[in-house]
Amino acid sequence: MIQVGIVGGAGYTAGELIRLLINHPNTNINFVYSTSNAGNKISKIHQDLVGSLDVEFTDTVNPEVDVLFLCLGHGNSVKFLSANTFSDNTKIIDLGNDFRLDADKVFNGKTFVYGLPELQKEAIKQASYIANPGCFATAIQLGLLPLASNGLLKNDVHINAVTGATGAGTSLSATTHFTWRDNNFSHYKAFNHQHLGEINQTVNQLQSDFNSEINFMPNRGNFSRGIFATTYTKFEGSVEEAIKLYQEYYKDAAFTFVSENAIHMKQVVNTNKCLIQLEKHGNKLLITSTIDNLLKGASGAAIQNLNLMYGFEETLGLNLKANYF
Prior knowledge:
Number of helices: 9
Strand order of the largest sheet: 10-11-9-12-15-14-13
Strand content: 15-25%
Oligomer: single chain
Shape: globular
């Protein structure tokens, strides 16, 4: 059994990881680290795990675990790895943003591979250190990869995407309280969201001559989980040509599917799927994509990467069904 450690165990992504790992046939949770909850039962924080996991949070780590998942706030993974030493054989999957950009991917001799399977599956299979993509970045990139890989992004790209309240984490703020979020809608970080760095990096990796703008407007929705993104850009071909392009690109993808019908978020919430749908409006291609921000946008993708790193079936432990009603 693969011995797994989780750091930052009280947050939403850690909770999803625990739920997935206790049902993964090849993993065992060795420790769940949380300094603020050390000694408390995990089920006291992740209350749906009552009767499923009789383990306490700890403030110590086992440096010999096989896999370490970092579920820390952005910028804290570097601090944690600087203060704690792990075996050279320990694989690391970071769910924060510390190692996603090329400028930051090498740390203490460890080279982190950007862990978007639909982009570079073979590199992930050979990697020991993974930078898990951001949630918005995942939904948006999956909508753009087929165009960029064929050199077809010739104009500005416009994106409007909405995420649920869990995207903000468990810490309370003025915009996460129920009374503010309920029956409400707002934008934030207009045109400068941190995930734009990942998106631009990937587009330029696939299409080096891309020199147009990617305009991203992120929004807060009054629901718990999920991301729905609408992207449009000029496209010279027909919608049939675009669909064929996307189907070909994702023909071997384990979780990304091109839908013939209009998509909506309930189809993917509580799953590791991404659904994509295409429409042509005049000279513009409209690309809609939707994921669960905590699964395909975080913990589900982390398990998908673990499976690839160990040579398991990519879908192992991730055959989840949407709660459609």
